[in-house]
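hiii, so i know i said id send this last week but things got crazy w the move. better late than never?? heres the sequnce for the chain we talked about at the cafe, plus the structure i predicted for it. fair warning i was half asleep when i ran it
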Amino acid sequence: MQDNALSVTVAFPAASATAYVSAIDLGVVAPGTNFLASNAWRLGRIRVKVPTLANHTDVTANGPITFTLQDALVTGVGVGTGATSTVGAYANTNPLVQYSLAGVATTGSLAKTFDIPIPPTIRGPFRIAIATGSAAGDNTASALTVDWTWE
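okay and structure toks below
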């Protein structure tokens, strides 16, 4: 089952650039903060859907597209306390969760879907950073979709 409210799409960045999927907030709070929160989100996962990328044809070390899970620490959260929350800077998760998509000569890379389990140490809202190599091709007309799913 997919939650349509937790689905975001972003265009691929140009070669040698990074784009970020808008943050998805599952209501996670940092471990050990004594705030009330549900652990039900642990049963789901992040589904990343990459379309066929016809221009992603470089098979060298400069061609991969890298997808990295990032999270942000949320402070000042207290259920029922009236406190406001502050989302800190995003950083790579610990442990690092990263996928790489290599280019395919002549045809470009094929469509790919991969599921990412949520690390137990996630600190708050998360996003996906999409970094393209210098030879990754012009894929700016294509879009990546990230969904929260319970399947």
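btw The mean pLDDT is 82. thought thatd interest u
miss u guys!!
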